Amino acid sequence: MRSKSWKKVWFIKSFLECSEKQPLHAMVGFDMLTRKQWDKVIYFFIDKLEIKGRESVLEIGCGSGAFLDAVKRRYKKIEITGFDNCSNYIDVAKQKLIGRFFVQDASDNEWDLDDTFDIITSFSVFQYLDSLYIATQVMENMFKHLKKEGKVFIGDIPNKIFEDDDKEYRRKEKKYLLRSPELNADHLYYDKDFFITYVRDKGKRILILDHENVINPIFPNIKYRYSLVIS
Ligand SMILES: C[S@@+](CC[C@H](N)C(=O)[O-])C[C@H]1O[C@@H](n2cnc3c(N)ncnc32)[C@H](O)[C@@H]1O
Questions:
Q1: Which residue has the higher pLDDT, 218 or 227?
Q2: Protein residue with its CA nearest to atom 2 in ligand 1
Q3: How many whole angstroms separate alpha carbon 88 and alpha carbon 18?
Q4: How far is residue 147's CA from residue 116's CA, in Å, rounded to a whole number?
Q5: Of 5, 13, 96, 172, which residue has the fewest beta carbons closer than 10 angstroms?
Q6: Is the CB of 61 within 6 Å of ligand 1?
């Protein structure tokens, strides 16, 4: 199963990359970016959430907390909560950030969480889920923990129409395969219509941001992804 393979990949990566010297975003696979570039990418997206400054924010698949750290550096009074299925990353987030962090798999039927949040985000995580069925279940849980007027941000989603191009790029890059050839970890690709239909049924609005139009090509396959804001 895809998610099991990726769980192993991220465990190995967390073991190799979590050190005092590494910036948080480099620990979770964005080592091709300087922290200035990372902030630029993240701030581009979070500006679309029109954060006022005292909201509660939950991140699904928060890793070492790099995304939440960028948000918190801009909005010092927000309350951050995050979970990830890799305990090494959660240990780092607990050490480096002021917030609530716990180990949880996004695909679990129910999350070990009672609260509701103003904003729920998930940056660069949906590609590791097993199926569209599971992705729908994750979104159902997001909405269960979202306040009535809350907003959702799902970032860095592989675009189904570029599946062949992206696979070719990844095949040439051989990044994960070299480290763990037996894992054969691939990504889940999403038609935009999958989200558009889901959000319409919830009576919410969706803003889709194609990466090739909004971010300088800091990394080569960025153009095969999109992000979305649901409000
Ligand atoms: C590319 S990193 C992004 C980390 C974080 N969202 C950020 O942008 O700073 C992907 C993260 O998703 C986590 N992840 C993958 N599948 C998951 C799942 N089913 N449940 C929880 N976390 C998951 C990985 O462990 C990893 O930390």
A1: 227
A2: 28
A3: 8
A4: 6
A5: 172
A6: yes
